[in-house]
Amino acid sequence: MSTNPVEVRPVSMPRDAAAFVRCWWPIYRDDPHWVPPLVFERKRFFDPAVNPYHRVAETRCFMAFRNGEAVGTIGAAVDRNYQREDPGAGFFGFFEFPDDEEIPAALFEAACEWLRARGMERALGPFNFNTNHEFGLLVDGFDSDPMVANPHNGTWFEKHYRALGLEPVMDWYAYAFEPGEIDERIVRIANRTLDRHPEVRVRNVDMKRFDEEVAILHAIYDDAWEHNWAHVKMERAEFEYLAQGFRSFIDPRFVFIVEVGEEAVGLSVTFPDMNQVVKKMKGGLFPFGWYHFLAGRRRIDQLRIFMLGVRQDFQKLPLGSLLYAKTWEAGMAAGVRFGEASLILENNHKMRGPIEKMGGRIYKTYRNYEKKL
Question: What CATH number belongs to 7-171?
């Protein structure tokens, strides 16, 4: 234990965003699987003038210092949309620290005090800032890089969470897929669905009508995810903001919309694993980041199934299996080496069943925690 005290200070965004993010580099200096975030993207995310999320949530970020050096970070949020579903629950995230018990203790107390002052009775996390962003503490599967838009943390984090009195409340799984033939049962279900329901069709997203397609995807997402644990309703403006952020690397071969007659009722969004490129960019576009971005995209051979859902009134049809079959087919045609489906709620057996039938195996586990304030 250090004899030098830890000082925690609130920071102002976006002014302090770069310093906030750059604080993470020393923490992960010796971790070969950490993927540095793109600093310019994080600055935009934290900027209330750019990111519409800040219109529906009050947020505050803190940094910890020892001997004048930045040594850790945390963020806290009171999400007004989530308060309608779970009053008194505030979020914490961006919780980054070295293996030193004083630093996480000081940071977490600062976030809890801020939440208490706003009437919150529980702290839930980690969420950066909610389930529509990166979330979950990695507790198993430290031996590989995270896929695009998934978090990563040190092996020492979990013990400090326990020391802070945080209790596990939910696990999320990342399933791994190896290339090969898809399970015949899934193919049969998909074909039978199309044969018995000629009104059902699956199409790829049309990037030439991107704004219209985003509106369709948002309507499905808003309905299909409504009852998921800790789901936060996403405003249209925020959904569009996040979609624009993903636009540069969306591959329409791996994005599907299911229509029943004239209605769009299901979606599957699968991303090329841009972390294979972003890791080499070391947080920035210059001096060589642009080169890695442009040259590396062609070499990506991994995919992450990021979103897959069906509107509630159509969930009796096996449209999820149909979407998985289409995604698998597209991935095999593209020569994909590895695939991931994530993050899947531990109690979402309707989704876990088809994944496991297709040979998916859990290879990473993420966990959320709670503490009464």
Answer: 3.40.630.30
Q: At what angle do helices 319-333 and 184-196 cross, to 10 degrees?
A: 120
DSSP assignment of 43-80 equals: HHHH-TTT-GGGGSEEEEEEEEEETTEEEEEEEEEEEH
d(CA 56, CA 234): 9
Number of helices (H), then strands (E), belonging to the chain: the values are 13, 15
Contact status, residue 305 vs residue 323, Cβ threshold 8 Å: no
Q: What is the CATH number of domain 177-367?
A: 3.40.630.30
Q: Which of 200, 294, 203 is closest to 252 using CA atoms?
A: 203
Half-sphere exposure in the Cβ direction for 236 (13 Å, CA): 7
Short-list 12, 6, 26, CA closest to 106: 6
- Global confidence as pTM: 0.94
Residue with the two structure tokens 């309707």: 350
What pLDDT, in 10s, does the model give residues 40-98?
999 999 999 999 999 999 999 999 999 999 999 999 999 999 999 999 999 999 999 99
Task: Dump pLDDT digits (tens) for 328-343.
Answer: 999 999 999 999 999 9
CA 364 to chain centre: 14
Give the domain ranges of the chain. Answer: 7-171, 177-367
DSSP 237-289: HHHHHHHHHHHTT--GGGEEEEEETTEEEEEEEEEE-THHHHHHHTTSSTTTH
